[in-house]
């Protein structure tokens, strides 16, 4: 027998020799009646060996555990670093602290050593402060620093239903139902987002132009403005079909008015494609779809009923987003950008300061600045301690940080103003902070979400406020997001907005400057709308058959807006004083004073402050309209075209030109016999008035001016409108 075999046999005998523990185990097995497991040979493996025994942790668990241990060791090491450094190299620390400023000015010290000397000293042995610093360091990457936040759509709770009922009782007298407002807001938002595809003649449309031009409200006494609004709606109908089929954009209003056959070709294409693309749900169960109205290709939207006109415009916007390749490519591009800020599943986003308030946005920006400063200084210290090299980009950021800190050191710590002076200085250094944010965060609370492509598809352009449990408020006005210096545009980032409000309060805005530079870039009218979205969402889930009004008009002038602001201010004061002017206000005040409605109280204050400031802009805009009504700002001579709307003796329309460019413009449509625009029975006013009107028209033509509103309003049209067959019918309600 070889020596190896003898060693194996000796090992087997040693395993067979029972020790004290094995004997005890055998006695327990006999007492319990368990069956003794069969003895295995040495080295033999069975299935039981794989099914039982100690199981090792997963690799990911071991790595996470070890990573946490490394983080904890790093924290402890950072806490003990100052004391250990003093004990190990006391002379070097003393030398650096004594000559760091001189060495820095002389330029004899390396950049890393200069930055290390400039870094703030750490607390000695304070492990709790270091742990808090570590938590703040994690907050930099976990907190939402974006300039736009989700607008969550959810049902009301039982308490919120009581709040909404009390709110409705207090403000029902100023809320006018406007069910069509949602579709108009949709079309205006589409035009605002894709403004590059529309001529500037369409980018000044107001909410009232849609109402009057589509005859959604009772016609006004001003015949001239009514006919202008109708022409502009037909012009919009023409441009939408051109974008949908011909991809030809930027057709001016004067070019549109000179065309004889405007709608026939594209209406024919629309009729062929509508069944493939689908029809709106309002048209699905109709025996006769309005698109196939015989006179639609001749007189445009005037061939349809008012509700069908709006539905046609809204449907064209939907078709363009889904079927037009340039628009579809633009949507795909902005939804697949390299800049990913981690948007949630919410479909609607709104500006941060409009939803959470100005104070919350400013405080979030200050907190972000502190986080960035702490993170950069910590990264700098670790690099110096471990003798690691820093990237040139980070060196450049450290130089910017040093400049920012030098400016902030000069700001006195005055506790009386609650840090307002320091906050103003921090916001004034916004451009430098943006350089420091690069590589750390994708967005910041003071950024402009209206120009950021990340929020292009989801941002609600006209949102101005929300009251939790009540609903949202919208201010639909077309604006140019790229013109931040537009003094009539309130949809900008928070920094420009606060400066704009301050200039209006201090009467620093010149009315002539407003008119000459900015009057043609935004809508000249406004309207404040209220959207009861929780009720709409509730009825949608319940599949309610009756369509209730979810949109309401709050105000459409500075006077009515000021009245609404005063009522909000009175409500805020009654909450603080625990009293109300009437029973309805007392009930609402009692509900709002509950702690669970604190968010609603803050929303009311934020909405009131914003509307108070923006009301100054609208007041100036109304003054401009009164002073310069009918006069266009001086630009290029090729754009100075206007049309005077009058009637001849037969009641047909004549369109006169300014003759500035001396270019002939065709009369309205080619099929004059099919169009009977009823703008009033002028002949009933007498022959003398007709002659007077004709003389005034000739005078205005020579002076290159339109007919004034007071003359045009003399033709009392008695609320007539066109029906589908072109006949006159009364639209009085």
Question: How is this structure best summarized?
Answer:
This protein is mainly alpha-helical. It contains 29 helices and 11 strands.
Secondary structure blueprint with pairings:
Layout: H1 3-16, H2 20-32, H3 47-51, H4 59-88, H5 90-106, H6 111-118, H7 127-142, E1 148-150, H8 158-171, E2 176-177, H9 181-193, H10 207-213, H11 223-246, H12 253-258, H13 264-277, H14 296-299, H15 306-323, H16 325-334, E3 349-351, H17 352-356, H18 358-385, H19 392-409, H20 420-428, H21 430-437, E4 463-467, E5 471-474, H22 494-505, H23 511-518, E6 528-531, H24 533-542, E7 551-555, H25 558-577, H26 583-592, H27 598-628, E8 643-647, E9 653-657, H28 687-702, H29 709-712, E10 720-722, E11 728-730
Antiparallel strand pairs: 1-3, 2-7, 4-5, 5-6, 6-7, 8-9, 10-11
Helix pairs in contact: 4-7, 7-18, 8-26, 9-15, 10-11, 11-13, 11-15, 15-16, 19-21, 23-27, 25-26, 25-27
Biased composition (Basic residues): 718-733
Region (Disordered): 1-59, 708-733
Protein name: WHIM1 domain-containing protein
Could you explain how this protein is built, in words?
This protein is mainly alpha-helical and 733 residues long. The chain folds into 5 domains: 1-30, no CATH class; 61-142, no CATH class; 158-172 and 341-628, no CATH class; 176-334, no CATH class; 640-730, no CATH class. It has 29 helices and 11 strands. The protein has helices at residues 3-16, 20-32, 47-51, 59-88, 90-106, 111-118, 127-142, 158-171, 181-193, 207-213, 223-246, 253-258, 264-277, 296-299, 306-323, 325-334, 352-356, 358-385, 392-409, 420-428, 430-437, 494-505, 511-518, 533-542, 558-577, 583-592, 598-628, 687-702, 709-712, and strands at 148-150, 176-177, 349-351, 463-467, 471-474, 528-531, 551-555, 643-647, 653-657, 720-722, 728-730. The strands form 4 sheets. Strands 2-7-6-5-4 form a 5-stranded antiparallel β-sheet. The protein has a two-stranded antiparallel sheet with strand order 1-3. A hairpin with a 5-residue loop joins strand 8 (643-647) and strand 9 (653-657). Helix 9 packs parallel to helix 15 and helix 15 packs across helix 16. The longest helix is centred in the last third of the chain and has 31 residues, at 598-628. It is globular.
């Amino acid at each position: 027998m070889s020596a190896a075999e003898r060693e194996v046999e000796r090992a087997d005998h040693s395993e067979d020799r029972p020790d004290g523990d094995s004997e005890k185990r055998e006695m327990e097995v006999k007492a319990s009646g368990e069956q003794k497991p069969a003895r295995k040979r040495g080295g033999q493996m069975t299935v039981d060996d794989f099914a039982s025994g100690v199981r090792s942790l997963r690799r990911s668990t071991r790595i996470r555990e070890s990573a946490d241990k490394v983080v904890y060791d790093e924290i402890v090491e950072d806490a003990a670093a100052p004391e250990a450094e003093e004990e190990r190299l006391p002379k070097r620390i003393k030398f650096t602290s004594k000559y760091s400023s001189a060495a820095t000015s002389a330029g004899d010290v390396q950049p890393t050593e200069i930055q290390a000397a400039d870094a703030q000293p750490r607390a000695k042995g304070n492990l709790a402060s270091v742990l808090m610093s570590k938590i703040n360091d994690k907050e930099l990457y976990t907190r939402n620093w974006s300039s736009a936040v989700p607008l969550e759509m959810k049902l009301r709770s039982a308490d919120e239903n009581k709040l909404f009922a009390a709110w409705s009782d207090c403000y029902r007298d100023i809320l006018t139902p406007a069910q069509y407002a949602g579709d108009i807001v949709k079309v205006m938002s589409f035009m605002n987002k894709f403004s590059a595809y529309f001529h500037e003649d369409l980018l000044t449309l107001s909410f009232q132009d849609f109402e009057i031009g589509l005859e959604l409200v009772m016609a006004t006494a001003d015949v001239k403005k009514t006919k202008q609004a109708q022409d502009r709606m037909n012009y919009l109908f023409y441009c939408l079909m051109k974008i949908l089929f011909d991809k030809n954009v930027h057709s001016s209003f004067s070019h549109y008015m000179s065309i004889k056959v405007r709608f026939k070709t594209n209406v024919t294409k629309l009729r062929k494609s509508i069944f493939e693309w689908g029809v709106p749900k309002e048209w699905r169960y109709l025996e006769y779809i309005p698109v196939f109205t015989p006179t639609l290709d001749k007189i445009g939207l005037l061939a349809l009923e008012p509700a069908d006109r709006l539905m046609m415009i809204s449907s064209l916007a939907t078709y363009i987003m889904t079927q037009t390749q340039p628009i579809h490519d633009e949507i795909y591009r902005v939804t697949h950008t390299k800049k990913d800020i981690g948007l949630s599943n919410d479909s609607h986003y709104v500006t941060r300061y409009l939803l959470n308030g100005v104070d919350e946005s400013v405080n979030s920006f200050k907190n972000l600045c502190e986080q960035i400063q702490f993170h950069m200084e910590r990264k700098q210290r670790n690099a110096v301690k471990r003798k690691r090299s820093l990237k040139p980009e980070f060196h450049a950021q450290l130089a910017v940080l040093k400049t920012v800190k030098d400016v902030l050191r000069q700001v006195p710590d005055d506790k009386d103003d609650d840090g307002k002076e320091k906050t103003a200085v921090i916001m004034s250094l916004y451009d430098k902070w943006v350089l420091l944010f690069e590589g750390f965060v994708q967005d910041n609370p003071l950024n402009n979400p209206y120009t950021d492509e990340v929020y292009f598809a989801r941002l609600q352009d006209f949102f101005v406020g929300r009251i939790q449990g009540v609903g949202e408020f919208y201010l639909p006005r077309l604006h140019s997001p790229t013109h931040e210096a537009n003094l009539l545009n309130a949809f900008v980032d928070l920094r420009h907005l606060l400066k704009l409000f301050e200039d209006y309060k201090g009467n620093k805005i010149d009315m002539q400057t407003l008119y000459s530079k900015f009057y043609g870039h935004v809508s000249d009218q406004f309207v404040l709308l209220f959207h009861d979205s929780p009720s709409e969402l509730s009825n949608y889930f319940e599949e309610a058959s009756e369509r209730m009004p979810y949109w309401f008009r709050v105000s459409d002038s500075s006077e009515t807006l000021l009245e609404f602001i005063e009522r909000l201010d009175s409500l805020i004061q009654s909450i603080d004083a625990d009293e109300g002017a009437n029973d309805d206000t007392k009930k609402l005040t009692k509900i709002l004073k509950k702690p669970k409605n604190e968010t609603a109280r803050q929303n009311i204050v934020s909405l009131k402050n914003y509307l108070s400031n923006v009301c100054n802009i609208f007041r100036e805009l109304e003054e401009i309209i009164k002073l310069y009504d009918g006069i266009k700002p001086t630009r290029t001579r090729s754009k100075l075209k206007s049309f005077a709307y009058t009637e001849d003796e037969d009641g047909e329309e004549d369109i006169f030109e300014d003759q500035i460019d001396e270019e002939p413009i065709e009369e309205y449509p080619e099929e004059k016999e099919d169009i009977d625009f009823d703008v009033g029975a002028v002949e009933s006013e007498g022959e003398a008035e007709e002659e007077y009107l004709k003389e005034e028209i000739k005078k205005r033509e020579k002076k290159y001016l339109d007919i004034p509103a007071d003359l045009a309003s003399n033709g009392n049209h008695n609320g007539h409108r066109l029906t589908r067959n072109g006949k006159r019918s009364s639209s009085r309600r």
